[in-house]
Amino acid sequence: RAKELGRKRYVVFDETLAKGMVDVLAMEGELRQALQHDQFQPHFQPICRLGDGRIVGYEALIRWNHPQHGLLKPCEFLKVAEDSGLIEAIDWRMFELSCSLLSRHGVKDTFMTFNVSALHLRHPNFDARLIRMVEAIGLPPSRLVAEVTEGALLDDPEIVRATLDRLREVGVGAALDDFGTGYSSLSYLHSLPLRMLKIDKAFVHELDKAGNTNSTTVVAAILALAHALNIQVIAEGIETQAQRDALMAMGCEMGQGYLLGHPAPIEYWLEPHSQTA
Ligand code: C2E
Ligand code: MG
Ligand code: MG
Ligand code: MG
To answer: DSSP labels for 36-79?
Structure first.
């Protein structure tokens, strides 16, 4: 218990804590309240075909509508949610909300990716619960793609692979997120049932800088490998037309980023927007 408190005290001084919140224990309480009072809201960021800008999917990203502090981003509270174990309940709420919104608003012919925390994937009933929820909402499972990070895979590769296999059997896809930032990526890539891979924005941001030969080489290698393994590629964090052009020239099919569209509530995407031209 003392050790646990020690850990929490450490987080007190973490800059990832939302402005105005000074105490991790207080924030845990507020996160519980947020669950009870429905203060979490998914925002949707479009994933576009790079060639013509057409929206082919959305990533659901959590936002916390805090009664005093306004709309909070994940960097302001996710660490506390993870350390306290509340992340599981929060992820389920997000998943249910995002699926319902997608289903209710009938955003047609698009897939939706959702983020799964590493803790979660290792849970023995994760896939069964997810499948039940998708069935209850009535969304075709093939429209869903779980985003997992390399960290999750490293912790428990066998369990994660089995879980992703079972999800694939019912049609739910998996995407490896932030690709290139973790470790030993290449060695396990071929053995995982992945539908997609997301190139981390750090590489994308380098593409239009002078002397970027290293990131260009890395991105080209990732694309070649993914395509050889029949994995679709999404480039994250595209902010300039030059980055988009470079990615297209290398054969990257899909992208996401402020150039193509910011995360926004689903209503925003129900009408065609010039932002995604
Ligand atoms: P991620 O999955 O890699 O999501 C992409 C992040 O990049 C999002 O940040 C998005 O808003 C941001 N982004 C999009 N386009 C651009 C761009 O052009 N430039 C830059 N600089 N950034 C861009 P966000 O929404 O703050 O989310 C941060 C991270 O929080 C996500 O990274 C994901 O790992 C995590 N996260 C988000 N929602 C959830 C959730 O519901 N559950 C869990 N467990 N994690 C979540
Ligand atoms: Mg993600
Ligand atoms: Mg992502
Ligand atoms: Mg990412």
So the answer is: HTT-EEEEEEEEEETTT--EEEEEEEEEEEETTTEEE-GGGTHH
Per-residue model confidence (pLDDT) at position 2: 39
Cα dihedral 4, 7, 13, 18, rounded to 10, equals -70
Report d(CA 122, CA 160) in Å as an integer. 6
For ligand 2, the distance from its centroid to the CA atom of residue 1, given in whole angstroms, is 32
CA 84, 87, 89, 94 torsion-angle sign: positive
- What is the rounded CA–CA span in Å between residue 158 and residue 151? 13
Tokens of 119: 């803790």
Supply the residue whose CA is at minimum distance from atom 15 of ligand 1: 257
Instruction: Report residue 114: phi and psi, to 5°.
Output: -135, 150
**Cα 184–Cα 122–Cα 231 angle in degrees, nearest 5:** 50
Task: Indicate whether this complex's ipTM tops 0.95.
Answer: yes
Mean pLDDT to the nearest integer, 204-231: 91
- CA–CA dist 207, 215 (Å, integer): 6
| Per-residue tokens: 37 | 């009072």
Tokens of 156: 């428990």
**Substitution site in 16, 45, 61 for ligand 1 pocket (most atoms within 8 Å of beta carbon):** 61
